[in-house]
Amino acid sequence: MAVINKGLDNIYVKESKICFIDGENSKLYYRGYSIEELAENSNFEEVAYLLIHGQLPTKDQLDTFNSFLAKNRGIDEIMSLMRLIPKTSHPMDMIRTTISALGMHDPDASDNSRDASVRKALRMLAKAPTIVATFARLRKGQDAVKPDQDLGHAANFLYMLSGKKPTEREAKIMDIMLILHAEHEMNASSFACSVTVSTLSDMYSAITSGIGTLKGPLHGGANEAALKMFMRVGGPNKAEEFVTETMKKKEKIMGFGHRIYKSLDPRYKVTKPIAEELAKQRGKTALYETAVRVEDAAIKALAAAKLFPNVDYYSGIVFSNLGIDTDIFTNLFAMSRISGWAAHTLEYLDDNRLIRPKAYYTGTLDLKYVPIERRG
Fold this sequence. Notes:
By secondary structure, this protein is mostly helical. The protein has 16 helices and three strands.
């Protein structure tokens, strides 16, 4: 009898130097650097460089990297397509389609060398925030805001979204959130990228596969679901009742539990104080207080199962207080994770083997064909 590992639990598909998760001890590392240290001291552009190139950049390397990103933010080549996308489209369908379309306009489209693949990845990384912000505005009947090459990656995104330059602190918070979502080892979307590129496809196909996988609510949509859950609770005083009723119905407490972490998600520990800071600053503390009360009640109710909050639990509150529409939260995840997806795609290509698993057949054999006029 074949051993079947549903969900590929504990199956290793490659060796990697990109990311390490210590789920028992609540640790996450990008290329050997703890997520807490990167969130406190680094910025998203530097982290993207680290993930893709394997080491922290020198000042000259980072300046060159930033310049390439800033110069490639424009999306004139697909603006006609952006205007054709129905305003009611799911934002993840939108970004999946537009990123794929960019591949046909890329000057390196026919070149699948490593250097060209890196340039393709960086162009997607540069253009994704412009795509997200442009769609968010066009669907409201607003004009698109051109990217500002003088702003950093996070600040420029918030500027294109609202038309107003963010404060230094708002830009820093957005920057931290992008760092926290940039990479997370061999998850479903990173695996999808690896499967695609293992056929010797191309970087655009790989990243499009990752986006399509991320769309699913079991992967990328949990922060949106968690925020909507807090809104349904009805206030901090109803939190315990909500948790009790949810448990009775055997429904999920959104933003709780993780396949890998058996203790607190380290990204949650960075996100929670930011959520509190923004809630107080914006004078919108009720939703945050509701989340805290739900968290306390859920930790007690789920103690036996050892389930704890993950990065999605408070990130929706952070994004909401930055003025970002709920249904594009997963877009933010995607525009950050392009860096991690690209890193895994490049790493897999360095030692490529076509991914071709097996399915254990349990059907019948040697059935006799019956002509259609004699069936049933």
